[in-house]
Write a structure and sequence with these properties.
alpha/beta; Quinone Oxidoreductase, Chain A, domain 1; 18 strands; 28% strand; globular
């Protein structure tokens, strides 16, 4: 099979590798779609903090957002058959420890993340192996495009859940990448009274408005503080979801959120947060929730998609083949102005 294999920062090659054989409890899946994520690019460049800490082993195969079809199953697989349409979890647990036995896979101390940290080889390949416990059926009426968007949507939903968004809340989302836009849509579905999204590109902000978000704040035209005052008025902002990866916006969140509010952080940062005003954080009774992964969020996302309540295909801004992956990752910075989600299509 053809694989886009990363041998070190900036060293991505298309290579031929044997098609893997599923072991007991595993399924071999043919990849149909794979989304390109900012984390993939950060690993590719070596800027990802976990690369610098030695937590990303090379060589490895990127790709953690995917959908596909079961090609072969190993012994003891009972829930999936050949030709089933599937999506896969973002991480693979040991399946044996106490955390795994109670279903808390994300807390497994032997966790291997698909295509990222402590790597389980990902989906920038024609085939991927996944344990049955980390596979989910893709409903017949949900496209493979939307299937490959389940992982970012599940991560986005986890930030909403940990952010404690409630009916009637006012919510500000920072960042207009795929996660930020999806977060804003999900917050609206959760019953927030007013949802605003702040970023710098009108085209991306318009995508969020098209999905039903109430207010877009372009921070190249107005300061974030003034935009929040104009958009939310005396109600202010009850919850903030920080999806931009900007340490400056994270720090500014403390000045924008209502007392007793929650800041949910669903981004990786490539530098330390300096001059953090911890007194304002304490005195304001503000809660900060860190979001990593998407534990337990695949099923609700798949249900929303199956019921026609969450179609994210409009966020796909370009399509590519597996052989184009090296060029796609190389050029991600130059395409930032218009790029939302790049999708790899397989034969």
């Amino acid at each position: 099979m053809q694989v886009a294999r990363l041998f070190g920062p900036g060293d991505l090659k298309l290579v031929e590798m044997p098609i893997p054989v599923p072991g007991a409890g595993e399924a071999l899946c043919k990849v149909i779609r794979a989304g390109v994520c900012g984390t993939d690019h950060a690993i590719y460049t070596g800027e990802f903090s976990f690369v610098k800490k030695g937590m990303v082993p090379f060589p490895m195969t990127l790709g953690h957002e995917w959908s596909g079809v079961v090609e072969k199953v190993g012994a003891q697989v009972t829930r999936f058959r050949v030709s089933d349409r599937v999506v896969g979890d973002t991480a693979v647990s040991c399946g044996k420890c106490q955390e795994c036995l109670i279903g808390q896979y994300l807390h497994c101390k032997s966790l291997r993340c698909v295509g990222t940290i402590n790597t389980w080889d990902g989906a920038y390949a024609e085939y991927i192996i996944m344990p049955e416990r980390h596979l989910f059926h893709l409903p017949d009426n949900v496209s493979f495009d939307n299937g490959a968007m389940v992982e970012p949507a599940a991560t986005a939903l986890y930030s909403v859940v940990l952010g404690e968004v409630k009916i009637g809340d006012t919510v500000l989302v920072l960042g207009s990448g795929p996660i930020g836009i999806i977060v804003a849509k999900l917050v609206k579905l959760c019953g927030a009274s007013k949802v605003g999204i702040a970023a710098r590109k009108d085209s991306k902000l318009q995508k969020a408005l098209d999905l039903g978000v109430d207010v877009a704040i372009n921070t190249t035209n107005i300061s974030l503080a003034d935009g929040v005052r104009q958009s939310f008025g005396e109600w202010g902002v009850d919850k903030i979801i920080e999806a931009s990866g900007s340490t400056e916006l994270f720090k500014e969140s403390l000045n924008l959120i209502n007392p007793g509010g929650v800041i949910s952080v669903v981004a990786f940062y490539e530098k330390m947060v300096d001059n953090f005003d911890i007194d304002k954080f304490v005195f304001g009774d503000i809660k900060i929730r860190a979001v990593a992964g998407s534990l337990g969020m695949y099923k609700p996302i798949l249900r929303l998609m199956e019921m026609g309540m969450l179609d994210l295909s409009s966020l796909i801004t370009s399509r590519h083949t597996l052989s184009e992956v090296p060029e796609v990752l190389k050029n991600m910075v130059s395409t930032n102005a218009t790029r939302i989600k790049q999708m790899i299509e397989y034969k």
